Amino acid sequence: MENLKEDLKKQIIEQLNLEDITPADIADDALLFDDGGLGLDSIDALELIVLLEKFHGIQVVNPEEGKVAFRSVDTMADYILKRKS
Amino acid sequence: MTYIGAEVIISPLGRTTAENWAAVSANQSGISLVKHAGFDNSDLYLSKILDLVDDYKFEKLISDALTAVSAQIDPGILISQRTVVIISSTKGELDKDINDPFGKSIAALVSKFSLVNQPIVLSNACISGVLAINAASNFIQAKIYDHAIVIGCDLISDFVVYGFQSLFAISDKPCAPFDASRNGITMGEGCGAVVVSGTKEIFLNGSFQLLSGTSANDANHIPGPSRTGEGLFRSVKRTLEINDVAPDEIDFICAHGTATVFNDEMESIAFDRSGLTNVPLSSLKGYFGHTLGAAGVIETAASMQMMRHGTLLKSLGYQESGTSKELNVLSENVAAQPKTILKTASGFGGGNASLIIRSL
Amino acid sequence: MSFITTYCHISADQCSVNGKAVSARDRAASESWFKQIYKEQELVYPKFYKMDSLSQAGFLASELIKRENKGLTGRYKDDEIAMLFANQSSSADTDLRFINSYEHNGAPSPSLFVYTLPNIVLGEIAIVNKWYGENMFAVLPKFAPGFFADYGQILLSTGAKAVLCGWLGVLGDNIEVFVWLVESETNGSLNFNQENVLKLSGFNPA
Lengths: 85, 360, 206
Prior knowledge:
The complex is a heterotrimer. Chain A is mostly helical. Chain A has one domain (2-84): Non-ribosomal Peptide Synthetase Peptidyl Carrier Protein, Chain A. Helix content of chain A is 56%, strand content 0%. Chain B has two domains: 3-173 and 188-202, Peroxisomal Thiolase, Chain A, domain 1 (3-Layer(aba) Sandwich), CATH 3.40.47.10; 208-358, Thiolase/Chalcone synthase (Peroxisomal Thiolase, Chain A, domain 1, 3-Layer(aba) Sandwich), CATH 3.40.47. Chain B has nine helices and 17 strands. In chain B, helix 3 (103-113) links the parallel strand 4 and strand 5 (120-122). By secondary structure, chain C is α+β, with helices and mostly antiparallel strands. Chain C has a single domain, classed as Thiolase/Chalcone synthase (Peroxisomal Thiolase, Chain A, domain 1, 3-Layer(aba) Sandwich). Chain C has helices at residues 33-40, 53-68, 72-75, 92-103, 110-113, 120-129, 145-156, 194-201; strands at residues 3-11, 14-17, 20-24, 81-87, 135-139, 162-171, 174-183, 190-191. Chain C is globular. Chains B and C meet through strand 5, helix 4, helix 5, strand 10 and helix 6 of B and helix 4, helix 6, strand 5 and helix 7 of C.
């Protein structure tokens, strides 16, 4: 689980082209779409859907699902494990 | 006064304006299910010209449009040094030359038709067509040119289809603008043309008055419209003001109506703020799909056909209001003689544009 | 009477404002030239990093012009500054990256796709400044000072009090960016006309 979260942080940084950010800068429970978190927007949310497909083979068919699943690295990891089981 | 006429439509519904009018007035749609069109190999609803098999499709369409236009105006106009051709398009001949999507086809057009002035390509996302018609009128009123031929053209390509798929913006059924069940756009391709001139005598088949309008930016978000419809509201407000037209003089609105949840909602808010919720309104995207850079020209041309034939087309795909401000969306064709039609467009990059056509 | 009051040039190696150099490229640096300018000029706008090259170029030039032309933003109403831009390659730079995303990188990238239209740069400048005025982007075979003079003048006589004009040649490492501000209610020394636009551009007339 910890590896998954660490990997997710690296993937987020890569997929979203985040500047000057390392995995250590992203707390597991930081709210990604808040300004205090990573300040992601709706297009970033769509890139996270691409990330899930590319790195985890998971297809998100409805972008509305993403709103809940992508709130933080914690919720993303939970979502991935749930989809894979 | 500026005049507009000689309208041309080339779409899946037909290669001539007459064919297109016959189809849309019978409420036929150019949308069909195209197999394996999606990035994931899925079948997608598209408004595709299925028998367009030329090597250089964009070049072919704009050339055919210019030929059709020239048959409806004074012969000397095309090659006059007082004439300019304005092309409105987002991607041109993208599949053939991504580094220069317009160069070859524009050069071919100049050569084939002996055009004197270098055509101007306007590329402003989905408002390009309306913007180009307004620009044409502005050039003429400033006496830089006397006549302008505006051609709007865009093709369906994997590039654009995959792009809109990545935004989850493509509807899984033929698009239903303003409808409660709408869930995205149906992509379309086609070519429209109109002629704008300061002289009504150049038109062999009569013309209309063009009350050219304005454009305004939302200054809000790149791919999504302003939630308050700010840019569209400002554009419509100024277009009405500079032409001294009151909201209650508008007989029909040919809206943008792409059938995304956000766009149509934004338009309803903007029209409500403008006092236009009772005006009969349709989106033509159910007939032609969303033809991007061509939309503003094709749909203005179709509006002119409505005026010529005394029929307001129903908004194909609409059954039940799905916007917070209810609009007077036509669910049946209406026999009417509209005197004044408002055409609007909105697009990526926060653009919004509008213009008015009036019968003489 | 309208005047060119402020201008910015960006080439592959140099950035200058009103003819004075403000940044020189460090080819040894790992980061892109536009990011170098952004950091060196101490601009603060995190959304810059999400922009494509065309938008970054337009953003940088307009910010440097604003900085040089103090009081610009307060001088006009929010819809009185129009924007008139053009180039030869449209959004080709980003188009190629988008194609790469689905041909070689697994899936079409939405964040690249939204920049595959040349007018997006105008949207970005409008957003940062809250400018609600007229915007136009043209694709022309080469730099055409006459087009800017003609349509710039039209914009000034139909409601705009200032026009931000720009030629954004950005394709790979071919960078020919020239952005200039025309104002009609401020006195200046350089008349806004075709000859002066061409002269100031430094581009070849051919």
